[in-house]
Design brief:
The complex is a heterodimer of chains A (about 200) and B (about 260). Chain A has about 200 residues and is α/β, with parallel strands linked by helices. Chain A is about 25% helix and about 35% strand. The longest helix of chain A is centred in the last third of the chain and has 13 residues. The mean pLDDT of chain A is about 95. In chain B, about 35% of the residues lie in helices and about 25% in strands. In chain B, helix 1 packs parallel to helix 2 and helix 8 crosses helix 10. About 0% of the residues of chain B have low confidence. The chains are: A alpha/beta (about 200), B alpha/beta (about 260). At the A-B interface, helix 1, strand 8, strand 9 and helix 6 of A face loops of B.
């Protein structure tokens, strides 16, 4: 059973629908106790980092997630959930969960033709092998909608990159945590495969 | 770099698929959910469901269609038609859409764009505009006028000025639908599309007139569109999404390919 963390950050039902279509059992919960005891956690979200952290702290979900992370529970972050696992976000100058050392920073395009948010289908390239990205082939594209991106301090925490006026990390991870900046649940059959890989993932 | 997007538009009336030709004589051509799934499997990038139901009694049927599409189609999709309030928008987003398309209601009350952008973020708000050529005048300096009610009602709004206003109010994307080209299958309105695309810094989706893959090529290059909306080209089985993309890729346009196409 996958627990999808509800912290009032966007539409969680699209992740649930994708898991339903894959036949993977899941529930949506805002209860820190259920998050603490979850077998697997998906941490999605769209919206602003400041508001998200405020809700997580008010509900005690930040502590519950930290305990689950330390206990080795497989965790998948998506979009905003990929940004607030870092130490700090430039968005609203927000201190975040600090599961992976690093910063979430805003796109600063030097070419005026590059529109912000970065929205649409773009190519992702694996930089380090990871079981969740096992089906990713050169040229494969996934769906992005974001104005900020994750920038871990350690290069070994980056597993895939994408080019938008320069390379940025599109998938990051450490131990039992993996996080994607793109919307796996809206990235067609490839995105569904990544969710399936997560459900089957046994981090060591 | 981002790929150019191919977006299929499904006009839905009373829960059934319809395709309008110059917005009159709509003809029922099947189940929108089955079509959406078929195009998804062909590698479609995005979907628009447009509710053309006349009676508000049948709006609940549309929500059901949105829910069924969301359960089977794992690409972004937007819903438009008859959305007048933030609550209307919230309902379709909760049913599984990523974005809302506002059109006539935004012309009548432009604040709707700002309210929806505040509530859901600009990325969720698409301003759809129906445009018709008009003699250039003081009120319509671009020579393109916004029309509503399926093209029957001129508004006196200049299309270029309206596009800029929509962006300023918080729209995240603009669909430029040419009423002159719609249903003709003679090609998109390149001049209009380019005019708008050069005036705003949000993505522009060309709509109306697509009849063959080279029309998409023209509007994605010369017309400077970020995406092209297709309808009858797909609905009558003349082309598949894959065939359109293969054509575009062959001419050097960056598109997302499905795995089995190598």
């Amino acid at each position: 059973m996958i627990t999808i963390v509800d912290y009032q950050a966007g539409n969680l039902t699209s992740v649930r629908r994708a898991l339903d279509a894959l036949g993977i059992p899941c529930r949506i919960s805002a209860d820190p106790e259920l998050v603490r005891r979850a077998e697997c956690i998906i941490f999605p979200g769209v919206g602003a980092a400041g508001a998200a952290m405020t809700v997580l702290r008010a509900r005690g979900l930040d502590q519950a997630l930290a305990e689950a992370f330390r206990a080795g529970t497989p965790i998948l972050g998506i979009c905003l959930g990929c940004q607030i696992v870092l130490t700090h976000s430039e968005e609203d100058d927000t201190d975040c969960l600090n599961f992976i050392p690093g910063q979430t920073v805003r796109f600063r395009p030097t070419e005026p033709a590059l529109k912000i948010p970065h929205m649409g289908w773009n190519e992702v390239t694996t930089t380090r092998p990871h079981p969740l990205l096992a089906h990713l082939r050169p040229g494969d594209q996934v769906y992005f909608v974001h104005s900020y991106y994750p920038r871990p301090d350690c290069p070994e925490d980056v597993f895939a990159v994408c080019d938008y006026g320069g390379l940025f990390p599109a998938a990051i991870g450490r131990a039992n945590l993996f996080a994607v900046q793109f919307h796996a649940e809206k990235s067609g059959p490839l995105g569904l495969q990544i969710l399936k890989n997560f459900a089957e993932w046994k981090p060591c | 770099m981002l790929s150019k997007r191919i977006i299929a538009c499904l006009d839905v009336r009373d829960g059934k698929l319809a395709k309008s030709v110059r917005f009159v004589n709509t003809k029922d051509i099947g189940d929108p959910v089955a079509k959406a799934r078929e195009y998804y499997e062909q590698g479609l990038d995005e979907l628009v469901l447009y509710d053309i139901t006349a009676s508000s009694d049948n709006r609940a049927i549309m929500i059901e269609v949105v829910e069924r599409v969301a359960a089977q189609v794992f690409i972004p999709f937007s819903v438009g038609g008859g959305l007048r309030t933030v609550e209307d928008c919230r309902r379709v987003l909760l049913a599984g859409a990523e974005k809302v398309n506002v059109n006539t209601a935004a012309v009548q009350r432009p604040e709707l764009i700002a309210e929806a952008a505040r509530a859901f973020g600009s990325q969720a708000v698409v301003l759809s505009m129906d445009v018709r050529r008009a003699p250039a005048s003081e009120a319509i300096p671009s020579g393109y006028e916004i029309v509503t009610h399926g093209g029957r009602a001129p508004t006196g709004l200049d299309a270029l000025a309206w596009a800029r206003r929509g962006e300023a109010l918080g729209a995240g994307e603009i669909v430029v639908n040419s009423m002159d080209a719609d249903g003709t299958k003679q090609g998109y309105e390149i001049t209009l599309t380019r005019l708008i695309a050069e005036a705003v810094s949000i993505p522009v989706i060309a709509s109306g007139g697509g009849g063959k893959p080279e029309h998409l090529y023209d509007v994605l290059t010369e017309g400077k569109a970020d995406a092209a909306l297709v309808a009858s080209m797909l609905h009558y089985g003349e082309y598949t999404v894959g065939a359109i993309k293969a054509y575009l890729a062959g001419r050097g346009i960056r598109v997302r390919k499905m795995k089995d196409e190598g």
